[in-house]
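## Example pair
The file below holds two records. Each record gives the amino-acid sequence first, followed by its structure token line.
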Amino acid sequence: MAQREIAHHMGLDETKLSKALNGTRRFHPEELTSLADITGVTVNWLLSGSDETHGPSVPPPPMVLPTRHPENNEHAQKRRAITEAAWWLFARRGYSAVRIADIAYACNLSTAAIHYYFSGKREIFAEALRYSIKLAFDRQIAELLPISDPVRRLKRLIELQLPAGERGSAEFSIWLQTWADVAVEGSGKENHAQGYRRWFKTVEDAIVQGQEAGAFVVVPSDQLAMELTSLIDGLGIKVLTGMLTSDQMHRHIESFIDRNIVIEQGSPA
């Protein structure tokens, strides 16, 4: 893609994009995630030249990132457009209510064109989950890298995953539908497991960092990560089903972190 085209898709002045790419202007986190989304690479790759560089978020295994194909830019962009359109449709309507014709209409393509890139709806949904994992990974790298304080980093990590706003709710909806699919059909079980393990390990690593800094209680990190991620999963379902707001969920989780993970100043570990 030409730099001008990328800047247009980002809604960013081309001069600002050029300066950021040359290192004379700092990218804002949302600009990094937008650039990664438009170009189909990860924020980790943009910053380090590799998807696998370790940072504040655990890199996903290649199998749970969007699939890559030996194709030209036009085909790659169409494939990404189909995935993103389907992602929104699945999130808003649910897997069973979305037809291939609906995805084609949203992309201004024929159903035959959709089948050129994907064998069927099941494959598209699997790609939608990979897209969700990439979105979360990109957001975590872009937002958490500048934060050194372990308490702020853990709380920001959790805040980034709340089902808040249209995109946050959509991302959580894809996960919720994946859980139901794995529980009933068993399809996509390995992709789900790999993606969720990445998220769990990211939370655990943030806890370990806080323990090493003397800011968090000395309790097995996997135990704390299990309790925290389970709370997030359960409260997220309550938000999506209208029993809680995302703000209430946020307050519950921050309270849990303060009561069960963070060491109060002057208190023994």
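Second record, same layout:
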Amino acid sequence: MPGPVSTPNVSETRSFRRTFLAYLSLTKPRVVELLLVVTAPTMILAQQGIPSLWLVLATLIGGAFSAGSAGAFNCYIDRDIDRVMDRTKNRPLVTGELSDRQALVFAWVLGAVSIGWLWVFTNWLAALLSLGAILLYVVFYTLVLKRRTAQNIVWGGIAGCMPVLIGWAAVTGDLSWPPFILFLIIFLWTPPHYWPLSMKYRSEYQAAGVPMLAVIRGRSQVGLQVILYAWATVACSLLLIPIADMGFVYAFTALVTGGWFVYETHRLYSLAIRHEHVSPMRVFHGSIVYLTLLFVAVGVDPLLPF
């Protein structure tokens, strides 16, 4: 007679799923997703066509591991801040889903895997740029700038610009002017993307002792800075046209989406100086749409015959 068929332990399955999601949360998957959005189009531009699909996949995997490692280190270092802010109160180190040691080991392992992966499956330059991105985010931004200066997002945002250099290096093995223009676009885009978020959560950042610009300055000053950086972003996006010999599709997309992005920042500033109700998250989400469409155009333009 056959023995009774064993069934999976439901509680163990649920526990595994919760632990998996907790580790995934440490990597800040929404940030990783946005970083990958800019990497693939950059690789197409570098190749002036579709690169090897395996190379694209390998670069995206390595980039995801790299960004995830940086995010995990950030969650570990900023766990005291996360406990104060409502926006981050459900992160796994706050809820106790993971221990501090588990998070730190995970960050180190994921970072080491990302560098080794890129070294083996792409090239040494992409791997070194990945290491640089982790160090910039963890050391330069999280440990040095974030709690000391209102310019933390400006200079700390350099780490978020690195994926375009990594993607270009993975294809060509070197760096030239186009990836640095893409780097500068993301660098200038980061403040008008993130400062509206800090406007919404101003009181939480203040309670946590993080000197975001919205904490140090009033809404009108933040709104003005957002406008200036938005204009600079759009101007820089147009520089790519002559430098990378971009075509009509990219030029049209850069002008139209850039104009819309600038309009939204002016609208935010106008409401702020009139002391009316502002919707900073409208600019925050709009900036993501703008950057996504711009980089879609970066990837599509080289594939067209005109």
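Notes on the second record: The mean pLDDT is 92. The CA atoms of residues 76 and 103 lie 6 Å apart.
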